[in-house]
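2024-03-11 09:14:02 INFO worker-7 job=invfold-0412 stage=load source=structure_tokens
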């Protein structure tokens, strides 16, 4: 076996990872999302040296990405700098880098800035958009997993409007003004509702020359109902609200192909649209290097009740990328922020306990319910104990929960101020084309993966968990 040394990148020998040697166990964490951030907060900095890698220098609050994409919030209010979040942590090092490969036989990871050894590895790399093997869609539609993608979508929506005022050709206008959102989970429902609100409250003021009756928003869902992971009541009310807002909901239909101009549905119908938004599924974002038998259909890392990867002693996975199979969750826990946070916390507390000679506790999910917002005063919430909320109450509860979950007082304040302003004025403040979206080379359509990563993440099958969002 060849020796893997910690080294600098060959093309930039003057730069290296620069983590000091330590007598404490070195924990390497990949990913500063919900799971990773909670893990850092809960791990004792007296007992471990903790090194976090993330390809971005910020934590993304994904549940509000759709508001950035539809000009409701600035990106800065839903992203928090990772160095700032953990500036009071000792023995903590952050490195902005892409982790390309895990080499478990040598307790080492390979990154875009060099290699480094670990004593304990925690993988919290989240999930990525699942196109179910339809490569053509990757190039032409808009996913929503990252801030740059949300900004691209915002630019595209506004550029469509700016172009639409320049033509009398109704066929061209149709393509510019029509939106097709694929996937009737919370993300698809929230996006469709939010675009419908732009049409209703914002665009009539901004584009009085346009006949907005010609603007159509379609929500296409493969199953017979919306919000499949939520209660029957939530599904029905979401459908009712969307229809009231003028969204055309197409159930039992899947998108077969898209050429950038026309969306072809499997049932034979077609929709002219320049903007196809893909919210139909996600799959685990697995870094290559782990044994195949350690993975669930190649798309999530199989873990035991302590989040330990099944094939390894010192590798753990938390959050979206981890598949912890239980009696109740046969495909693993749903890909949700509270699951990731709770797993991050439990794992950190177990590692702290281990140092003190205490036994590990298995992970137990505390499910506090789920919510989806459709529009102004329109939301649904399934609460513990079978309680159901809808309308203004659910909408207010949704806002409160999201503000509380946001990281940092500044973000909470800005988001709240934006929402109050929008509520009172029916306005949205961020209708800016700062970075014009350029087709066909959509740089953020899907972050290019290293070859090995791409080979490792085929179109995974849709599971109950992956279809949850
Ligand atoms: C649009 C949208 C809306 C959502 N809404 C909700 C909601 O309302 N409620 C809810 O509970 N959940 C929601 N979710 C799901 C929720 O965001 C995820 O379940 C949660 O983010 C999972 O946390 P995580 O730590 O596993 O991964 P993430 O939060 O995705 O974090 C993964 C991190 O790993 C980094 N990373 C990945 N690969 C690498 C690599 N190779 N090298 C270096 N860094 C890497 C990424 O940059 C990222 O920072 C939503 C998701 C999306 C996309």
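2024-03-11 09:14:09 INFO worker-7 stage=emit residues=469
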């Amino acid at each position: 076996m060849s020796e893997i040394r910690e080294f600098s990148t060959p093309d930039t020998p003057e730069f290296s990872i620069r983590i000091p040697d330590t007598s404490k166990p070195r924990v390497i964490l990949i990913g500063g999302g919900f799971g990773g951030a909670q893990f850092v907060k809960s791990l004792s900095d007296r007992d471990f040296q903790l090194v976090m890698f993330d390809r971005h220098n910020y934590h993304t609050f994904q549940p509000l990405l759709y508001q950035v994409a539809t000009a409701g919030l600035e990106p800065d209010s839903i992203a928090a700098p990772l160095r700032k979040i953990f500036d009071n942590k000792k023995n903590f090092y952050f490195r902005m880098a892409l982790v390309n490969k895990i080499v478990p036989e040598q307790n080492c990871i390979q990154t875009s800035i060099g290699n480094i050894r670990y004593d304990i590895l925690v993988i919290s790399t989240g999930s990525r958009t699942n196109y179910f093997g339809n490569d053509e869609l990757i190039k032409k539609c808009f996913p929503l997993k990252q801030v740059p993608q949300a900004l691209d979508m915002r630019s595209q929506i506004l550029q469509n409007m700016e172009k639409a005022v320049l033509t009398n050709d109704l066929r061209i206008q149709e393509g510019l003004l029509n939106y097709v959102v694929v996937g009737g989970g919370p993300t698809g429902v929230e996006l469709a509702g939010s675009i419908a609100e732009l049409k209703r409250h914002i665009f009539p003021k901004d584009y009085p020359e346009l006949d907005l009756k010609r603007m159509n928003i379609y929500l296409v869902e493969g199953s017979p109902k919306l919000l499949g992971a939520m209660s029957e009541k939530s599904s029905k009310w979401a459908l009712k609200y969307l229809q009231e807002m003028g969204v055309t909901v197409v159930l039992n239909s899947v998108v077969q192909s898209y050429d950038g101009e026309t969306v072809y549905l499997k049932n034979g119908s077609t929709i002219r649209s320049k903007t196809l938004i893909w919210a139909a599924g996600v799959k685990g974002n697995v870094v290559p290097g782990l044994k195949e038998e350690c993975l669930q259909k190649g798309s999530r890392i199989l873990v035991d009740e302590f989040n330990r990867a099944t094939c390894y002693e010192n590798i753990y996975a938390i959050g979206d990328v981890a598949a912890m199979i239980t009696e109740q969750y046969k495909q693993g826990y749903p890909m949700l922020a509270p699951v990731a946070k709770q797993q991050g916390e439990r794992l950190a507390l177990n590692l702290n306990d281990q140092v003190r000679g205490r036994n590990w506790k298995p992970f137990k999910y505390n499910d506090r319910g789920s919510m989806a917002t459709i529009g102004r005063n329109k939301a649904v919430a399934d609460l513990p104990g079978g309680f159901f909320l809808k309308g203004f109450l659910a909408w207010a509860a949704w806002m409160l929960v999201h503000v509380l979950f946001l990281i940092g007082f500044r973000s909470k304040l800005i988001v709240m101020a934006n929402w109050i302003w929008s509520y009172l004025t029916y306005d949205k403040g961020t209708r800016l084309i700062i970075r014009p979206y350029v087709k066909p080379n959509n740089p953020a359509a899907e972050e290019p993966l290293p070859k090995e990563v791409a080979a490792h993440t085929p179109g995974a099958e849709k599971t109950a968990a992956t279809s949850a969002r």
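2024-03-11 09:14:09 INFO worker-7 stage=report msg="The chain has a mean pLDDT of 91."
2024-03-11 09:14:10 INFO worker-7 job finished
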